[in-house]
Amino acid sequence: MRTILIAGAGKSSIYLIQYLLSIASRNKWKVVVADGNKENIESKINGNPFAEAAVIDITKNTEREALVKRADMVVSLMPPHLHILLAKDCLKHKKNLITSSYISPEMKEMDKAVKEAGLIFMCEMGLDPGIDHMTASQIIHSIQRVASVITSFKSYCGGLIAPECDNNPWHYKFTWNPKNIITAGADGARYLSHGKEVDVPYSEIFKNNKKIKVDDLGSLAYYPNRDSMRYLELYDIPEVKTFMRATLRHPGFCKGWEAIVALGLTNNQDTFDAGGQTLASWLKNKSGYHNTISLQEHISQKLELPADSKVISMLEWLGLFDEIPLKKGKTNSADLLLGLLSDKWKMQPAEKDMVVMQHEVEYIHKERKIKLTSSMVLKGENSDYSAMAKTVGLPMAILAKLLLNKKVSAPAGVNIPNMPSVYRPVLTELHHHGINFKEEVE
């Protein structure tokens, strides 16, 4: 019996775990699910006889390494900074690894050793990054096969709340790791526009956001996502003049989040004691408030907004102007904001999320300019069986199955899924699970 180790039983893991358990019997697999929270594991494996719960501290070398050593395949849904711990164990014990997160510098440094060991470390195998790479590569390769020149490539993706469950002024609820929302854009962004590299600092990320139209949804705003330039070589489109990967949000969200950033409420370095403080006093301290006008007026002036602007009402809805006591103890603004939003933006059990992905590709074929738009909109079933969990977990699960059953060949090393041998079978199966793209050419 072969063993699959799944590290992480959080929000995005339910489809991954249940897919592998659904085929464990006929494949003679043991699926070991490791997490620090016993309830998280038990709610996902539901007493399945081919599952094994491993309640461990993933940072404890002895506990973690023992599980990796007995596994035939390791699949990690751990927070990004913890993948490297599993990666080192996988290299030591010669195990293949699949992760959902961006390739970190530490992971990239392992590439040579992983290649020499003949191992496959497939990173960025979730939604974004993941499905975006696979569908983008499929489009690019099909265009290149007809000897066309790609001049512009833009890729957008967002985890949003379904319109029928959109009932707050931010038009947003947490559909995945809340901490990632707090830190979004913190490192700035870089992309290519009309042949010139553009660097965007954190303070400018959410300003003057442009919009795209998505069929049946209308306009969504986007902001550049991290360093797009690092994918130019991986996507192999040297002639492209515009290249951007971006995140989708409701236009109102971007304006509100710009205010949150400008007020310093995402700062994780301003450690202070919250004892005796309230949400309002926290905002006063962060914004340099003086008791001459109301706090709302002060914030309006500081942000250079009308007092009756939607942004002020959005901040008001969060309770930032209220004398709500803070929990005693050392904290920082980012953690305080995370706690506040985790309550305000929490999805209710029956509510549905929505994943939107859209690629816009412009190319020249036989001297004619062509624009191809490829779009995917997927709604979840409820807060547990979310579209985010489905699109993050299923690509990893499908690849794990294909690799274990030797149905796919992937190059050794630390890679992303941009090769036909991987994306073709994975996208084919995702199609059968309702993850489909609609293409329009003009």
Question: What can you tell me about this protein's structure?
Answer:
There is one protein chain. The chain has 442 residues and is of the alpha/beta class. The chain has 3 domains: 2-126 and 387-437, NAD(P)-binding Rossmann-like Domain (Rossmann fold, 3-Layer(aba) Sandwich), CATH 3.40.50.720; 131-258 and 348-379, Dihydrodipicolinate Reductase, domain 2, CATH 3.30.360.10; 272-331, no CATH class. The protein has 17 helices and 18 strands. The protein has a 7-stranded parallel beta sheet with strand order 3-2-1-4-5-6-17, with helices on both faces. The protein has a 7-stranded mixed beta sheet with strand order 10-11-12-7-15-16-18. A two-stranded antiparallel sheet has the order 8-9. The model has no long low-confidence stretch (mean pLDDT 95).
List keywords for this structure.
single chain; 442 residues; Rossmann fold; Dihydrodipicolinate Reductase, domain 2; 7-stranded parallel sheet; 17 helices
